[in-house]
Amino acid sequence: MIGLSTYAYFWQWSDQVPEPLSLTGMLADTAAQGVELFQICDYPPLESMTDAELDEVRDEARRLGVRLELGTRGLRPEHLRRYLELAGRLDASLVRSMLYSADSRPTPDEAEAYLREVVPEYAAAGVTIALETYEQVPTRVLVDLVDRVGDEHLGICLDPANVVAALELPGDVIELTAPHVKNVHVKDFAFTRSAGWVGFALTGARLGTGQLDRAHEVRAVRAAERGINEVVEHWLPWQGDAATTCAVEREWTAHNLDYLRSERT
């Protein structure tokens, strides 16, 4: 299934715009674009919502015909248990996470212990944890963790763009993680020299115009045939003002959805 993420609305719900989109506003826009999946990812207000507010989000998603997934950072058992509660409240079947959070940087052995404690609870609830590929942790460490824990409810959230910052090759990461992928963050990227030829910039790009080998990703992961959800994100730089930035963000979303749909026809 093709989905959208809070990262596809990064600027539209930020405090950089005069009238930020609410979570229900993002859900409504998702449904209006004919998309049936929305990933609430790294969205701080979620953790402070009351049960009544969470129920309102769940009920609105149901009314709109939009399934939910969640995204957070960190592996401490108490934190993952909180997100399992949120997943249950919101009918979400997947929680994307990362090894590190603002207040926790576990060793691989500590991360394994955390996951061994909590993954059985996720499995019992029918919820999957997907560890995202990103620059702070080598991809081999993530794959080894998944292998050692050895539960179908633990896998990888593949995002090849992130690993460029750690000088990992996106193509290698796609191949390494493909058997374990449970979720894909789809965004193209451009790694280019900065103006003046001093240094480099790693930024987003409209899908098909950057350096993501999307064809390789499609062949290796086989998301459509394996039932893996692919969630659209953006790394859109600020475009000088709020109106222009939000307009470009919306255009990228429409383009990327069309691109992904064309792959499946």
From TrEMBL:
It comes from the Bacteria. Transmembrane segments: none annotated. InterPro entries: IolE/XylAMocC-like, Xyl_isomerase-like_sf, Xyl_isomerase-like_TIM-brl. Residues 30-253 form the Xylose isomerase-like TIM barrel domain. This is TIM barrel protein. It comes from Saccharopolyspora gregorii. The lineage of its organism: Bacteria, Bacillati, Actinomycetota, Actinomycetes, Pseudonocardiales.
